From TrEMBL:
<dbReference type="InterPro" id="IPR029063">
    <property type="entry name" value="SAM-dependent_MTases_sf"/>
</dbReference>
<dbReference type="Pfam" id="PF13847">
    <property type="entry name" value="Methyltransf_31"/>
</dbReference>
<feature type="domain" description="Methyltransferase">
    <location>
        <begin position="66"/>
        <end position="180"/>
    </location>
</feature>
<feature type="signal peptide">
    <location>
        <begin position="1"/>
        <end position="19"/>
    </location>
</feature>
<dbReference type="InterPro" id="IPR025714">
    <property type="entry name" value="Methyltranfer_dom"/>
</dbReference>
<keyword id="KW-0732">Signal</keyword>
<protein>
    <recommendedName>
        <fullName>Methyltransferase domain-containing protein</fullName>
    </recommendedName>
</protein>
Length: 222
């Protein structure tokens, strides 16, 4: 009888651990990073074959960035795009590399030193607030992060406040269909919904580019 009671307690405890850790992993995925170590996530972001389909240099060339622009890289992660944005902004510009994960910010800080990225400023932000200054950003760049943002209507209001009067938002996110890369289909957002959400927030769709095989590439202006 005691053994049976012990086994029941053990089973209950195991179930509780499963629920708690499972919720934690789901929460990590929901807030911008899949479960696992920071190092593992960085390796995934920086995998050599990513350039073949992400085309970072071409993407940045299509953004119309001017020397001296201030760019907010929301969900910067390892700084994959931050480096390319930094080159375009030039010595008189600035890239705010924003991420909610302290490990990512630490990695970007090391990258700034190693690659001499003098115009990059790491920003540890909140899941519901990128923590920028009002009217500070010429361009808000959000790659593969928009679908993770909860309460997007409120978040877009903040982005509008943080953007300059003619500020822009560039969204790159995974198409709502099965692709070799990207999150589960259930987490993806259709292009139509993205456009509606951002135009409802007071922006207008300025440009759409079609060269990325797995992602939408949309640019909006205030």
């Amino acid at each position: 009888m005691k053994r049976k009671f012990h086994l029941l307690n053990l089973a209950a405890f195991s179930f509780l651990v499963f629920i708690l850790t499972g919720n934690n992993l789901y929460s990590q995925h929901q807030h911008g990073h899949p479960p696992g170590s920071v190092d593992g996530y960085i390796n995934m972001l920086e995998t050599p074959d990513r350039a073949s389909w992400q085309m970072p240099e071409k993407v940045v060339n299509y953004l119309g960035i001017k020397e001296g622009d201030v760019i907010a890289d929301i969900g910067a992660g390892s700084g994959y795009f931050t480096v390319f944005l930094s080159k375009k902004a030039g010595n008189n510009g600035k890239v705010l590399a924003c991420d909610i994960e302290k490990g990512m910010i630490n990695y970007i800080e090391e990258r700034i030193k190693k690659e001499n990225l003098k115009n990059v400023v790491p920003v540890l932000c909140k899941p519901d607030d990128p923590m920028l200054f009002p009217s500070s950003a010429d361009l808000v760049f959000i790659c593969d992060t928009y679908h993770h943002i909860e309460k997007r209507n409120e978040y877009l209001k903040l982005l509008k406040k943080y953007s300059k009067p003619e500020g822009r938002i560039a969204i790159i996110d995974y198409q709502k269909k099965e692709t070799p890369h990207g999150p589960p289909l259930s987490m993806r957002i259709s292009k139509e919904d993205i456009v509606k959400e951002i135009t409802d927030a007071g922006y207008k769709l300025e440009a759409e580019f079609f060269f990325l095989p797995y992602q939408y590439f949309l640019v909006f202006r205030k």
